[in-house]
Amino acid sequence: MSRKFQRIFSVFLFVLPFLCFIICLGIGRYRISVPDTVEILFSPLTGTTVDATAYSVLFKSRFPRLLLSLFVGAGLSVAGASFQSLFSNPLATPDTLGVATGASFGAVLALLISRNPLIVQILALAMGLISLFGTYLLSRLNGRNSIVMIVLSGMVVSSFFQALVSLAKYVADPEEDLPAITYWLMGGMDRATMRNISLGLPLIAIGVLILVFLRWRLNIISLQEDEAKSLGINLKSMRLLVMISSTMVTASCVSMCGQVGWVGLLIPHAARMIYGSDNRRIIPACIGMGAAFMVLIDTAARSITASEIPVSILTALIGAPFFILLLRKTGGTSL
User: pLDDT of 25-73, one tens digit each?
Assistant: First the structure.
């Protein structure tokens, strides 16, 4: 892609999430036109009298979940791109270190104890961070902290927490607890309220900002270890900072909406098709593309059928064929 096209496309990606957000606010069983949507959005500032039903639908139902979709899409995409550069592996995802599985177990455990959304969110976030700590400790068992050991440790931790999730589902009440656990694990934005997401959104924003500021260092981290050290980079500290930031983003996303697959794998590859391997451009591109993608997916999930479709089902149905097309076009060299 030419530099001129990349600059134009970057401007488009900056505008795209906001455009999708405004349009999708009006889409649903209760339709609201774009001009009316804009008028309702700014009515608290302008003092304009608007339809009470439309105001309630927009602010109490759609606005929180689309806001969550923006942050989750951007966060998972940036975390996926960071992990792929950190591990020099095009198949790395936000769950490479077992964080998503650990956070899922925390949520399942909370659902067995209480249905309070805040407790579910806190336990999921806590278990996600514990899973990172466990992965880091395991990777240092032989006194070294190589990338291979970190990845292998993440696989072990992920399998361990997946077994705990299965055990929790096995002992759950099949009439009440098991359906709630199963539906939660499928992922969805339907639980979003401004109160519930106020804890997780700042953590996602902080993690994404850290990765944005470190994006040029991700180019160096992806080099050979000797080359990176010769450029004056403290690899150990930098890897740990990237892992903590990506983990904070992933755990926060999972704690609020459950497991959402494919976003952290698909969006970074799409960005690399346009911008090459330069993380200085890939990371910002992932923010715009991921945010717009999740807003559209959530809108489709609540609008296609009378009953809402879990988000992870749609991301897989759309992501898998699109990823096959990407592999066919790039030959697997998009990283």
Answer: 999 888 999 999 999 988 888 878 888 888 898 988 899 999 999 999 9
Cβ 269 vs Cβ 320: under 8 Å: no
Nearest by Cα to 262 from 114, 87, 73, 116: 73
How many whole angstroms separate alpha carbon 28 and alpha carbon 260?
22
CA distance 89 to 335: 8
Residue whose token pair is 């992922």: 187
3-class DSSP assignment, residue 80: helix
**For the whole model, what pTM was predicted?**
0.89
Contacts of residue 77, Cβ cutoff 8 Å, sequence gap at least 6: 263, 264, 267, 268, 271, 286, 287, 289, 290, 291, 293
Does an H or E element contain 267, and which?
A: helix 263-275
Residue 160 CB coordination number (10 Å): 17
Question: In whole angstroms, what is the distance from residue 135 CA to residue 286 CA?
Answer: 26
Query: Can you tell me the distance from the alpha carbon of 201 to that of 115, in angstroms, rounded to the nearest whole number?
Result: 21
The tokens for 65 are 């979940």
* pLDDT band at residue 227 under the 50/70/90 scheme: low
Check: CB of residue 279 under 8 Å from CB of residue 333: no
- Cβ atoms within 10 Å, residue 237: 9
Number of H helices, E strands in the chain: 16, 0
Instruction: Compute CA 164 distance to the chain's CA centroid, rounded to the nearest angstrom.
Output: 23
Contacts (Cβ under 8 Å, ≥6 apart) of 86: 92, 147, 218, 221, 222, 239, 242, 243, 246
